[in-house]
Q: What sequence folds into this?
């Protein structure tokens, strides 16, 4: 597995922009840190983090064409918010180009942009690492989110989804319904935990 990871790093370095490659490496390291904290498989986590943006090499319009060419079904929401599509096409690339057969890794790549209700531990790790990695600096609540990530992963996912939806709605951007479903799911967990206090 270590050799596969090193080879993937070389391949991605050639394909991704320097900034995207730095982000990718950073996410893969944060994934392993979160995996250590929550008892997830380190190599799975590093691999999923490394490949989470492997389709970012292509622009949004190109990704739609490539999905259509490979008969990858696109929802109407995905067509309205093509910026999330690199996750779906990335999962396909990870499997068909990079030979990744691990369904957990593929699912973590697939759902790292929108999230989904009841994510697996690995899915939550990649979703969170993508948001909190050190190169990220746009979200105002990052210091809080970064600390919560290592205390309560479900709470962290809730905070990320809440902030993302508020940002998108505030800007008048289209919100993928899967993100809304994910937010509703993790909001219930958040409220249940508050009720226990």
A:
């Amino acid at each position: 597995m270590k050799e596969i990871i090193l080879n993937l790093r070389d391949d991605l370095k050639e394909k991704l922009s320097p900034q995207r490659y730095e982000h990718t490496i950073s996410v893969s390291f944060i994934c392993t840190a979160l995996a250590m904290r929550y008892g997830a498989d380190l190599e799975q986590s590093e691999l999923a983090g490394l490949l989470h943006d492997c389709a970012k090499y292509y622009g949004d319009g190109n990704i739609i064409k490539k999905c259509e060419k490979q008969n990858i079904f696109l929802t109407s929401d995905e067509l309205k918010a093509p910026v999330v599509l690199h996750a779906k096409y990335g999962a396909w690339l990870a499997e068909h180009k990079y030979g990744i057969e691990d369904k957990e890794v593929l699912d973590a790549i697939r759902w790292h942009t929108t999230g989904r209700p009841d994510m697996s531990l690995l899915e939550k790790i990649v979703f969170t690492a993508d948001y909190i990695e050190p190169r990220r600096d746009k979200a105002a609540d990052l210091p809080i989110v970064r600390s919560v990530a290592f205390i309560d992963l479900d709470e962290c996912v809730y905070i990320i989804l809440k902030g993302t939806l508020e940002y998108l709605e505030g800007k008048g951007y289209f919100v993928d319904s899967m993100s809304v479903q994910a937010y509703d799911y993790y909001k219930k967990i958040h409220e249940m935990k508050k009720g226990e206090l």
About this structure: The two ends are 43 Å apart (CA to CA).
